[in-house]
Amino acid sequence: MINVVEEVKRIQKEIVKWRRDLHQIPEIGLNLPKTAAYVSNELSKMGIKYKTNMGGSGIVGIIKGEKEGKVIALRADMDGLPIKEDTGVNYASTNDNMHACGHDTHTAMLLGAAKILNKHKDKIKGTVKLIFQADEESCHGAKEIIKSGALKNPKVDAVLGLHIGAIFSEVECGKIGIGYGKIMASFDKFYIKIKGKGCHGAMPNLGIDPVTMAGQIITAIQTIVSREMKPTHAAVITIGKVQGGTAYNVIPNYVEIEGTFRAVYKEQREYIKNRIEEIVAGIVQGMRGEYEFKITPGAPPVINDEEFTKGFVETAKEVIGEENIIELKEPTMGGEDIAYYLNEVPGTFFFLGAFNEEKGIVHPHHTPKFNVDEDVFWEGSALLAQGALDWLNK
Fold first, then answer.
1. Which residues bind Mn(2+) per the record (predicted)?
2. Which parts are annotated binding residues for Mn(2+)?
């Protein structure tokens, strides 16, 4: 028998070092040359075979057990965000990007799991695929690495991944959140350009005012969720950017609006997408203007497989204790492109709590002061490693 917990605890300092090294070199998008080189080098030290340039800078490692069996993929994302860090830690980013969502920790924890699994591959019945993915933040990485064959040769039968931080406030530091079924929403971006006719603000009758149209559109779009959605089915529409005009007394030629909509049901997602444009068209055409409308699709909802999740919960009970497992009753409206993997194969995406008020680690994701409690890293690695072993060997 392998005592995964004890073995992972022995390499906790190494996991922290990997995380801190990666934290200093954050890169964004599909092209992560320094990050990919670092991960590749560590896998080489472990003697793990891998392929590079999978879906951009993605890496897929293979740990083949001595006994034949199924294939499970363990997935971590590697990209950062275009945010200037303001944490004050001595391992802060050395460039203008930042690991403000914890992907450096996901990568480090997967390296930890890989080290333990590779050491004991004679005990593995089947194969473990290690997927280090680029560009989760822009929602291109999962699609691209899957397209490049990450789930094939050998064909993956299940997938397991995690997210650190405080996405669910009830998941306290050192605990994990587990959900059955829908656990995160789809996320899509929309862009609207409202075209009018510019003129002097003192003579609005000579122009066509896109600012007035924008105001009505912003208000009307919000009624899609409040008046047209089933109240028990979560959905949200947020407008995050409104831009137009150059002077206080000039009606501009156009106004641009950008936002996002989230849903946990496919039917709602399609309905919202269609209704936004219908509302824009109705208001703009009724007020003598014109418009452009564009949807940038994001990931679908994250849906955990119920049977796989039940099995993983049993694993988690042995690793961290039942008292540290929080069942998540409702999904978050945040999104994650692990949804693309879960659309292909069954699996689970779980959440590791890592905010700690006593240590002042309280700042939310995607902000310049975001950080996590490094003391929980061993848990993530142990849960990934033991989860893979238990699923393959049962």
1. 101, 103, 137, 163, 366
2. 101, 103, 137, 163, 366
